[in-house]
Amino acid sequence: MITQPKFSINKIEYTFHPITLRRYLDLQNYVGEETADNKFAIVSAITQCPVEELRKLTYKDWLIVWEEILFYISFSTSADTIQPVIEFEGQEYSLPDVDDISIGEYIDLDLILHSDKSDRKLNEIAAILYRPIVSKKGGVIRIEPYDSKETKVRAERFMDLPISAIKSANAFFLHSAKSLQKNLLDSLNLPKMMQILHPEDQEQLQSFLQQELGGLQLTEFQEKIHSILERQHDSQSDPFSTSWLGKKLRPRKRNLNSKKQDR
Questions:
Q1: Among 16, 160, 237, 244, fewest CB within 10 Å belongs to which?
Q2: Confidence of residue 220 (pLDDT cuts 50, 70, 90)
Q3: Structural domain that includes position 209
Protein backbone atom coordinates (compact mmCIF):
# COMPACT_ATOMS: atom_id res chain seq x y z
CA MET A 1 0.00 0.00 0.00
CA ILE A 2 1.29 3.43 -0.89
CA THR A 3 2.38 5.64 2.01
CA GLN A 4 0.61 8.94 2.54
CA PRO A 5 3.22 11.73 2.02
CA LYS A 6 3.03 14.85 4.17
CA PHE A 7 4.34 18.39 4.14
CA SER A 8 4.03 21.39 6.41
CA ILE A 9 3.36 25.09 5.90
CA ASN A 10 3.67 27.41 8.90
CA LYS A 11 3.68 24.36 11.21
CA ILE A 12 0.39 23.07 9.79
CA GLU A 13 0.72 19.55 8.42
CA TYR A 14 -1.03 18.46 5.23
CA THR A 15 -1.40 14.84 4.13
CA PHE A 16 -1.86 13.37 0.67
CA HIS A 17 -5.37 11.88 0.89
CA PRO A 18 -6.37 8.68 -0.93
CA ILE A 19 -7.52 9.34 -4.48
CA THR A 20 -11.15 8.32 -4.42
CA LEU A 21 -13.29 8.07 -7.53
CA ARG A 22 -14.94 11.37 -6.63
CA ARG A 23 -11.56 13.08 -6.28
CA TYR A 24 -10.26 11.37 -9.41
CA LEU A 25 -13.16 12.73 -11.46
CA ASP A 26 -12.57 16.21 -10.02
CA LEU A 27 -8.95 16.01 -11.12
CA GLN A 28 -10.05 15.42 -14.71
CA ASN A 29 -11.16 19.06 -14.81
CA TYR A 30 -7.51 20.13 -14.59
CA VAL A 31 -5.92 17.56 -16.89
CA GLY A 32 -4.65 18.65 -20.28
CA GLU A 33 -3.57 22.21 -19.52
CA GLU A 34 -0.51 22.67 -17.32
CA THR A 35 -1.16 26.12 -15.96
CA ALA A 36 0.04 27.27 -12.56
CA ASP A 37 -3.57 27.61 -11.40
CA ASN A 38 -4.34 24.03 -12.44
CA LYS A 39 -1.29 22.69 -10.62
CA PHE A 40 -2.29 24.49 -7.44
CA ALA A 41 -5.85 23.16 -7.83
CA ILE A 42 -4.59 19.57 -8.24
CA VAL A 43 -2.39 19.73 -5.14
CA SER A 44 -5.17 21.37 -3.16
CA ALA A 45 -7.69 18.70 -4.21
CA ILE A 46 -5.43 15.90 -2.98
CA THR A 47 -4.04 17.50 0.16
CA GLN A 48 -6.92 19.79 1.19
CA CYS A 49 -4.35 22.54 1.55
CA PRO A 50 -5.83 25.91 0.51
CA VAL A 51 -4.30 27.37 -2.64
CA GLU A 52 -3.38 30.58 -0.81
CA GLU A 53 -1.30 28.49 1.61
CA LEU A 54 0.40 26.59 -1.20
CA ARG A 55 1.50 29.89 -2.68
CA LYS A 56 3.51 30.54 0.49
CA LEU A 57 5.90 27.67 -0.29
CA THR A 58 9.35 28.49 -1.57
CA TYR A 59 9.89 27.60 -5.21
CA LYS A 60 12.20 24.72 -4.21
CA ASP A 61 9.65 23.27 -1.76
CA TRP A 62 6.84 23.70 -4.26
CA LEU A 63 8.78 21.68 -6.86
CA ILE A 64 9.26 18.89 -4.31
CA VAL A 65 5.54 18.83 -3.48
CA TRP A 66 4.54 18.94 -7.15
CA GLU A 67 6.89 16.10 -8.15
CA GLU A 68 5.60 14.05 -5.23
CA ILE A 69 2.01 14.70 -6.29
CA LEU A 70 2.73 13.54 -9.85
CA PHE A 71 4.25 10.30 -8.57
CA TYR A 72 1.39 9.82 -6.11
CA ILE A 73 -1.25 10.26 -8.82
CA SER A 74 0.58 7.96 -11.22
CA PHE A 75 1.02 5.21 -8.63
CA SER A 76 -2.54 5.48 -7.30
CA THR A 77 -4.28 5.45 -10.67
CA SER A 78 -2.17 3.10 -12.81
CA ALA A 79 -2.39 -0.07 -10.71
CA ASP A 80 -4.93 -2.59 -12.03
CA THR A 81 -4.24 -5.47 -9.65
CA ILE A 82 -7.39 -7.39 -8.82
CA GLN A 83 -8.20 -7.22 -5.10
CA PRO A 84 -10.56 -10.12 -4.24
CA VAL A 85 -11.44 -8.55 -0.88
CA ILE A 86 -11.50 -4.89 0.14
CA GLU A 87 -12.49 -3.03 3.29
CA PHE A 88 -14.42 0.21 3.13
CA GLU A 89 -16.01 2.19 5.95
CA GLY A 90 -15.74 -0.75 8.36
CA GLN A 91 -17.34 -3.28 5.98
CA GLU A 92 -15.56 -6.02 4.05
CA TYR A 93 -16.57 -6.62 0.44
CA SER A 94 -15.64 -9.46 -1.88
CA LEU A 95 -15.74 -10.08 -5.61
CA PRO A 96 -17.90 -13.05 -6.68
CA ASP A 97 -16.64 -16.19 -8.36
CA VAL A 98 -16.75 -15.74 -12.13
CA ASP A 99 -18.95 -18.84 -12.49
CA ASP A 100 -21.50 -17.37 -10.09
CA ILE A 101 -22.17 -14.20 -12.12
CA SER A 102 -25.56 -14.39 -13.84
CA ILE A 103 -26.13 -13.23 -17.38
CA GLY A 104 -28.37 -10.47 -16.01
CA GLU A 105 -25.53 -9.10 -13.90
CA TYR A 106 -23.10 -9.35 -16.79
CA ILE A 107 -25.39 -7.48 -19.14
CA ASP A 108 -25.89 -4.74 -16.53
CA LEU A 109 -22.11 -4.45 -16.30
CA ASP A 110 -21.63 -4.45 -20.07
CA LEU A 111 -24.26 -1.76 -20.57
CA ILE A 112 -22.62 0.47 -17.97
CA LEU A 113 -19.10 -0.01 -19.29
CA HIS A 114 -20.07 0.87 -22.83
CA SER A 115 -22.58 3.64 -22.18
CA ASP A 116 -21.93 7.35 -22.68
CA LYS A 117 -19.47 8.78 -20.13
CA SER A 118 -18.77 5.29 -18.80
CA ASP A 119 -15.60 6.57 -17.12
CA ARG A 120 -17.91 8.42 -14.71
CA LYS A 121 -19.90 5.30 -13.89
CA LEU A 122 -17.14 3.00 -12.67
CA ASN A 123 -18.60 3.17 -9.17
CA GLU A 124 -21.68 1.38 -10.55
CA ILE A 125 -19.51 -1.46 -11.86
CA ALA A 126 -17.74 -1.72 -8.51
CA ALA A 127 -21.09 -1.69 -6.68
CA ILE A 128 -22.35 -4.66 -8.72
CA LEU A 129 -19.21 -6.71 -8.26
CA TYR A 130 -18.08 -5.85 -4.72
CA ARG A 131 -20.76 -7.11 -2.36
CA PRO A 132 -20.76 -7.27 1.46
CA ILE A 133 -19.25 -10.37 3.04
CA VAL A 134 -21.76 -12.09 5.32
CA SER A 135 -19.56 -14.93 6.54
CA LYS A 136 -16.16 -16.61 6.29
CA LYS A 137 -16.10 -20.30 7.08
CA GLY A 138 -13.39 -22.80 6.24
CA GLY A 139 -11.86 -20.51 3.67
CA VAL A 140 -15.23 -20.06 1.91
CA ILE A 141 -16.47 -16.49 1.63
CA ARG A 142 -20.21 -15.89 1.43
CA ILE A 143 -21.42 -12.58 0.01
CA GLU A 144 -24.81 -10.98 -0.38
CA PRO A 145 -26.75 -11.97 -3.50
CA TYR A 146 -27.10 -9.45 -6.30
CA ASP A 147 -29.77 -6.85 -5.53
CA SER A 148 -30.18 -3.99 -7.99
CA LYS A 149 -31.74 -1.69 -5.36
CA GLU A 150 -28.89 -2.23 -2.92
CA THR A 151 -26.44 -1.77 -5.77
CA LYS A 152 -27.75 1.73 -6.47
CA VAL A 153 -27.32 2.72 -2.83
CA ARG A 154 -23.85 1.20 -2.71
CA ALA A 155 -22.85 2.94 -5.96
CA GLU A 156 -23.34 6.34 -4.35
CA ARG A 157 -21.20 5.35 -1.36
CA PHE A 158 -18.56 3.93 -3.69
CA MET A 159 -17.96 7.39 -5.14
CA ASP A 160 -15.61 7.69 -2.14
CA LEU A 161 -13.97 4.31 -2.75
CA PRO A 162 -10.22 4.52 -3.51
CA ILE A 163 -9.58 4.51 -7.25
CA SER A 164 -7.40 1.40 -6.82
CA ALA A 165 -10.48 -0.61 -5.75
CA ILE A 166 -12.53 0.90 -8.57
CA LYS A 167 -9.87 -0.17 -11.07
CA SER A 168 -9.73 -3.60 -9.44
CA ALA A 169 -13.44 -4.16 -10.10
CA ASN A 170 -13.07 -2.95 -13.68
CA ALA A 171 -10.06 -5.22 -14.29
CA PHE A 172 -11.92 -8.19 -12.80
CA PHE A 173 -14.84 -7.58 -15.15
CA LEU A 174 -12.66 -7.27 -18.26
CA HIS A 175 -10.54 -10.30 -17.38
CA SER A 176 -13.68 -12.34 -16.71
CA ALA A 177 -15.40 -11.49 -20.00
CA LYS A 178 -14.06 -14.47 -21.93
CA SER A 179 -14.97 -16.89 -19.16
CA LEU A 180 -18.46 -15.43 -18.93
CA GLN A 181 -18.92 -15.75 -22.69
CA LYS A 182 -17.84 -19.39 -22.51
CA ASN A 183 -20.34 -20.04 -19.70
CA LEU A 184 -23.08 -18.55 -21.83
CA LEU A 185 -22.20 -20.68 -24.84
CA ASP A 186 -22.01 -23.81 -22.67
CA SER A 187 -25.45 -23.08 -21.24
CA LEU A 188 -26.88 -22.70 -24.75
CA ASN A 189 -25.57 -26.10 -25.87
CA LEU A 190 -24.28 -24.42 -29.02
CA PRO A 191 -23.73 -27.55 -31.18
CA LYS A 192 -27.35 -28.59 -30.69
CA MET A 193 -28.57 -25.06 -31.34
CA MET A 194 -26.60 -24.90 -34.59
CA GLN A 195 -28.45 -27.98 -35.86
CA ILE A 196 -31.82 -26.23 -35.66
CA LEU A 197 -30.75 -22.92 -37.17
CA HIS A 198 -31.19 -21.86 -40.76
CA PRO A 199 -27.89 -21.69 -42.73
CA GLU A 200 -28.05 -17.88 -42.78
CA ASP A 201 -28.47 -17.75 -39.00
CA GLN A 202 -25.63 -20.23 -38.53
CA GLU A 203 -23.29 -18.12 -40.64
CA GLN A 204 -24.29 -14.93 -38.83
CA LEU A 205 -23.82 -16.50 -35.40
CA GLN A 206 -20.45 -18.02 -36.30
CA SER A 207 -19.26 -14.61 -37.53
CA PHE A 208 -20.48 -13.01 -34.34
CA LEU A 209 -18.66 -15.53 -32.13
CA GLN A 210 -15.35 -14.78 -33.84
CA GLN A 211 -15.46 -11.15 -32.75
CA GLU A 212 -13.74 -9.92 -29.62
CA LEU A 213 -15.93 -8.88 -26.72
CA GLY A 214 -16.54 -5.17 -26.83
CA GLY A 215 -19.21 -2.55 -27.08
CA LEU A 216 -22.59 -4.12 -26.41
CA GLN A 217 -21.55 -7.39 -27.97
CA LEU A 218 -22.94 -9.77 -25.36
CA THR A 219 -26.17 -7.80 -25.11
CA GLU A 220 -26.49 -7.90 -28.88
CA PHE A 221 -25.64 -11.59 -28.80
CA GLN A 222 -28.48 -12.24 -26.34
CA GLU A 223 -30.90 -10.24 -28.48
CA LYS A 224 -29.76 -12.09 -31.60
CA ILE A 225 -30.29 -15.45 -29.90
CA HIS A 226 -33.72 -14.34 -28.74
CA SER A 227 -34.64 -13.26 -32.27
CA ILE A 228 -33.45 -16.56 -33.71
CA LEU A 229 -35.37 -18.54 -31.11
CA GLU A 230 -38.56 -16.67 -31.89
CA ARG A 231 -38.25 -17.83 -35.48
CA GLN A 232 -37.96 -21.39 -34.18
CA HIS A 233 -41.00 -21.01 -31.94
CA ASP A 234 -43.20 -23.21 -34.15
CA SER A 235 -41.18 -26.22 -33.01
CA GLN A 236 -42.80 -27.54 -29.81
CA SER A 237 -39.72 -29.60 -28.98
CA ASP A 238 -37.40 -26.60 -29.21
CA PRO A 239 -35.38 -26.78 -25.96
CA PHE A 240 -34.33 -23.16 -26.27
CA SER A 241 -37.77 -21.46 -26.39
CA THR A 242 -37.46 -19.37 -23.28
CA SER A 243 -37.08 -15.80 -22.10
CA TRP A 244 -33.79 -14.15 -23.10
CA LEU A 245 -32.93 -13.92 -19.40
CA GLY A 246 -34.61 -17.18 -18.56
CA LYS A 247 -33.02 -19.98 -16.63
CA LYS A 248 -31.77 -21.81 -19.71
CA LEU A 249 -29.84 -18.74 -20.83
CA ARG A 250 -27.98 -18.32 -17.55
CA PRO A 251 -24.46 -19.70 -17.08
CA ARG A 252 -24.02 -22.79 -15.01
CA LYS A 253 -23.31 -21.97 -11.41
CA ARG A 254 -20.74 -23.69 -9.29
CA ASN A 255 -20.97 -23.55 -5.51
CA LEU A 256 -24.12 -21.46 -5.81
CA ASN A 257 -24.87 -21.59 -2.11
CA SER A 258 -21.43 -20.26 -1.23
CA LYS A 259 -22.49 -16.79 -2.24
CA LYS A 260 -25.94 -16.73 -0.65
CA GLN A 261 -26.62 -15.24 2.73
CA ASP A 262 -27.45 -17.74 5.44
CA ARG A 263 -31.02 -17.46 6.62
A1: 237
A2: low
A3: 85-259
